[in-house]
Amino acid sequence: MQTSKERNTILLFIPLILNFFVMGFVDIVGVATNYVKEDFALSDGMASLLPMMVFIWFAICSIPTGILMGKLGRKNIVLLSLFTTALAMLIPLLFYSYFGILLSFAFLGIGNTMLQVSLNPLVTSLVRKEKLTSILTMGQFIKAISSFLGPILVAFSASRLGDWRLTFLLYCIASVISIIALYSLKIKETAEPSQTSTSFRNIFSLLKDSYFVYCIVVILLIVGIDVSLNTNIPPLLVDRLSIPLAEATLGTSFYFISKTIGTFIGAFLLVKISPIKFLKASIWIAALAFITMMFSSSFWGLLISIAIVGLACANVFSIIFSLALQHDIKRANEISALMIMGISGGALITPLQGFVTDQSNFTVGLSVILLCIFIIGSIAFKFKQENLTH
């Protein structure tokens, strides 16, 4: 028979899982971009503005959200982020145009930025310290599930329900359920002095240290690579295999499944292997697999190379985040805000790649992603184990 304490733990767990699931909605931007491009006959350059409208807000809103969180409370910021996400999901259903999608993706980016900045601190208010790591790990796993379910839901809505945009309706309903579940919880938050001292000046002062510059560049590039792959895998499969877009979008789900498996494997390997050595090996494996993907025209060649790229890139963000924290653990709050800002890389690489594609061809455009992988590989060799702590 369940005790009152056990029931309360379950009640806390449900809204947390729902919130992490909503966090994964941002990855629908890649698949949606392909449908919007087709619906409005957009060029690659114009289509690439859609992911930019999502990820640019990580640069603009992450630090203000961290400061605002200290004034309004973590729960209120999470609720505001969920409301913003629900609003973003409604816009394409009510006002479907290129401008409407730009507006929708802007709200999605703002909501996701607030959610990523505020949800993890909220979790620390709800669970005991000894359970924090397992809950956060579970949360990232749920986010990954949400990410690879997105393309499947889009393909199902397009082929079975007759309109791919109905995916937004499902996401809107999920966001509203999350709002209700979280709002019903009574949460006692304790203010932390370290949060109130966080400021723009403190955060940007980190960039005086070249180590943090390297870290933020890698974060910018790896997120840009992730968003570009998310966007380009479907047209790549359409181009090479001559299959319908609805089927090609499942390639994005395959990529996210590979990333989920890669994260799981990495959690075990990083216990025994140096994160810097793991990073170096991962990024060069990703480079070789990506070169294969660029020029392959066979079904299995493409799927295997996509899977290897997903597996190899799965742990880069978490490794860099960890290395940055270890370099100066006393400034963990400022470092975290800076790293979340780096997610705005999704707004930089995809438009550049789209521009190159417009000026040349699809394969040459993919070389922008390959260049990003090579830059990360070169930076990885600048990290040394003895430089992790001050």
Automatic annotation (TrEMBL):
Membrane association type: Multi-pass membrane protein
SUPFAM superfamilies: MFS general substrate transporter (SSF103473)
ATP-binding keyword on record: no
Pfam families documented for this protein: MFS_1
Domain (Major facilitator superfamily (MFS) profile) ranges: 8-389
Gene Ontology terms for molecular function: transmembrane transporter activity
This protein's UniProt keywords: Cell membrane, Membrane, Transmembrane, Transmembrane helix
Superkingdom, taxonomy of origin: Bacteria
InterPro entries per the UniProt record, alphabetical: MFS, MFS_dom, MFS_trans_sf, MFS_TsgA-like
Gene Ontology CC, one term: plasma membrane
Membrane-crossing residue ranges in chain numbering: 12-36, 48-70, 77-95, 101-123, 135-156, 168-185, 211-233, 253-271, 278-296, 302-325, 337-356, 362-381
Coiled coil: none
Entry's localization field: Cell inner membrane
PANTHER family, per the entry: L-FUCOSE-PROTON SYMPORTER (PTHR43702), PROTEIN TSGA (PTHR43702:SF3)
The protein's name in its UniProt record: MFS transporter
